[in-house]
Design a protein that fits this description.
The longest helix is centred in the first third of the chain and has 17 residues, at 101-117. A hairpin with a 6-residue loop joins strand 3 (204-208) and strand 4 (215-216). The chain is α+β, with helices and mostly antiparallel strands. Helix 1 (17-30) packs antiparallel against helix 2 (55-65) and helix 2 (55-65) crosses helix 3 (101-117). Strands 4-3-7-10-9-8-13-16 form an 8-stranded mixed β-sheet. A two-stranded antiparallel sheet has the order 1-2. Strands 5-6 form a two-stranded antiparallel ribbon. It is 31% helix and 12% strand. The radius of gyration is 32 Å and the shape is elongated.
Length: 631
């Protein structure tokens, strides 16, 4: 009797009745051959007949992982070893190359659906038909090293890496079609994008009011005018809408949930998503990952249910503006919002391929105080991931599907971006978000200066009594630490303003009351159920701080007239404070003279310093060639 084994090569297991029926027949055939403990060898592509499971586990294993290649005679499951040639299986059907890495990618994707269908039988889902057709198709007759899909994926990857325009990509496709008439390739970039979108990880285009007042999303999706400023959603020509509706601004939103699910779809990354629990440092004095920090540990204590499953995802958010056109004479600021996954080890979580772009905020102006308008889709999804979670296939677990939850732990940004995200203004007399209302500051010529740094020194330190800093003895203690309850009480007093930049609505400058301190708004992050309890909400980007401090120090030491902080106004401030008399400006006839300071290099020392910098050698990739920038 010939046994039908064609079902074992079907790739779309979750949408195939043939696979499901074949699997049930296989289990019935194997049932009499279980051992006395009810176990039998598992022929899934992971176990490869090396492990034994109970019969009900075999069903989920084969449905999730697929049937192993090369197991042509089912000698462990009831088939006689002398079966005729008609019972053999030829391997992957339809010309799919077993070594094609794209097949592994697709198999990981559809395994998510397979777990959902494993209980009630397969569902009807044909979204992968075109992908498998392209995977089975040879790129060109006689070329077995590339499938059509594999070649297209690599071509799209090159387009992104080398910043090809859509037009140049289209011209390349035309050239390939002309040079190789029988090549199996898409006709245009549009068709390529349609095919790639079927692999998942798509994005949504959300229209935005021209004044950043609101998104045309959810309840506003069908409106033609802004619900706040009543401006038209569409660009107008001569006061009238053009033939095609063109929005003023478009926000690109990349959903987070599917991308987090993809991290658990392969066994390698699924195991790495547990690193923060299994691979963290055992030395309490060493911090090599945020898991070793106090904020992470406090978070786990406050949310034990979330911390109980190490697979729940911890996220960090980074945002900053950049000019996408590379032309500094053109004022344009576009803001990407990027998420990083802190479950991963430190040498992986900051790699580009593991950073997730969640929002692409359009210009030409920076969002500023209206950042919350653009963050709305992301915050809504993060709330959903925290409260309800998402059914996720875990390729590294025998249990298959688990309920994945996610939490945003903090943000990472420079100081101006921190103001937009947190709601605490980084300007004025109370600019320091740590000192809060106790920020020591004074007005000097042309700007606000922040002093009082000696208060952080030990109470018996001799610098506290030195009068050369600001003419006074420092007796204050360090500023008190404001708890999460204190911050919430301050935010309770903040008045809700109108969003947007319309001159008659959100663009009207509002004077803050004294009880509002430096708060401009209550950040949208406080809508997240876990946000108010987080000790460390916003981190400053060390790279920006290091660069700025280094530039200012070197500029001052080298007496660079363009970058030095030792300016004429700084000397006038010293005279106004009555300190450092030897550095005060003085008149010599008709000239205003500035005495040389001890902290600046002489000309001979500047030359020595430049020669040293020119001779420094760095390993490849650690720094640019400094010698080219030293005269």
């Amino acid at each position: 009797m010939t046994i039908d084994k064609s079902w074992t090569t079907i790739r779309r297991r979750g949408s195939s009745n043939e696979f499901w029926n074949g699997l049930q027949h296989f289990l019935q055939m194997a049932k009499p051959f279980v051992n006395d403990r009810g176990f039998i060898k598992c022929p899934c592509r992971r176990c490869l007949n090396n492990a034994s499971h109970q019969l009900e586990d075999l069903e989920s294993h084969i449905f999730r992982n697929g049937f192993m290649f090369g197991y042509n005679q089912w000698i462990h499951h009831g088939e006689p070893a002398t079966a005729n040639a008609g019972t053999t299986v030829e391997g992957p059907s339809g010309g799919i190359h077993e070594k094609d890495e794209i097949f592994d990618l697709l198999d990981d994707i559809i395994s998510e659906d397979a777990d959902k269908d494993a209980v009630g039988g397969p569902s009807s889902n044909d979204q992968y038909d075109d992908l498998f057709a392209a995977l089975r198709s040879e790129l060109y007759h006689g070329v077995s090293s590339f499938s059509s899909l594999n070649f297209l994926v690599k071509l799209m990857h090159l387009k992104v890496l080398n910043k090809w325009t859509n037009k140049s990509f289209y011209e390349l496709l035309k050239l390939l079609k002309l040079a190789f008439p029988k090549i199996d390739l898409v006709e245009s970039h549009y068709e390529a994008k349609k095919l790639m979108m079927k692999m998942g990880l798509v994005y949504s285009s959300i229209h935005v009011c021209k004044n950043d007042c609101a998104l045309f999303w959810k309840e506003n999706s069908l409106k033609d005018t802004c619900p706040v400023c009543l401006e038209s959603r569409w660009k107008l020509q001569s006061g009238k809408r053009s033939g095609k509706n063109v929005p003023h601004k478009v926000l690109r939103y990349f959903p987070v949930g599917p991308r987090l699910k993809r991290l658990f779809a392969t066994s390698k990354t699924a195991k790495l998503m547990r690193w923060h629990s299994t691979g963290k440092s055992k030395d309490n004095d060493v911090m090599r990952h945020p898991v070793d920090g106090k904020s992470w540990q406090e978070f786990d204590k406050r949310h034990p249910q979330f911390a109980s499953d190490v697979r729940n995802v911890r996220l960090g958010l980074a945002a900053d503006g950049f000019n996408p056109f590379g032309n500094m004479s053109l004022s344009y600021s576009m803001w990407p919002v990027v998420l990083t996954t802190y479950n991963l080890p430190p040498w992986i979580c900051m790699k580009a391929e593991y950073l997730m772009l969640s929002l692409l905020i359009p210009g030409p102006q920076s969002p500023g105080k209206d950042m919350d308008v653009f963050l709305r889709p992301l915050i809504d999804e993060l709330k959903e991931l925290w409260v309800h979670g998402l059914d996720t296939h875990d390729a590294a677990s025998e249990n298959g599907v688990f309920r994945m939850h996610a939490a945003l732990l903090w943000t990472v940004n420079d100081f101006p971006a921190r103001s937009s995200l947190s709601g605490w203004s980084g300007q004025g007399y109370r600019a320091c978000p740590t000192c809060n209302e106790d920020t020591p500051s004074m007005r000097v010529i042309g700007k606000t200066a922040y002093f009082g740094h000696r208060r952080f020194l030990p109470t018996n330190h001799h610098w506290r009594s030195n009068l050369q800093f600001d003419g006074r003895t420092e007796r204050k203690r360090p500023p008190c630490r404001f708890s999460t309850t204190d911050i919430l009480e301050q935010l309770r007093r903040v008045k809700t303003g109108i969003l947007g930049k319309h001159p008659n609505y959100g663009g009207v400058k509002r004077k803050r009351g004294d009880d509002e301190l430096n708060w401009r708004k209550k950040s949208i992050f406080y809508e997240l159920p876990n946000w108010a309890t987080i000790e460390l909400k916003h981190n400053l980007d060390v790279m920006h701080i290091e660069k700025n401090v280094c530039d200012n120090l070197l500029g001052t030491l080298l007496a660079d007239p363009h970058k030095s902080k030792d300016t004429d106004n700084a000397r006038r401030d010293l005279a106004k404070l009555g300190i450092r008399h030897e550095l005060h400006l003085f008149e010599d006839g008709n000239k205003l003279m500035k005495p040389a300071a001890d902290y600046t290099f002489s000309e001979a020392n500047r030359r020595k310093f430049c020669r040293f910098i020119r001779s420094v050698k760095f390993p490849d990739g650690f720094a640019s060639n400094l010698s080219k920038n030293v005269a």
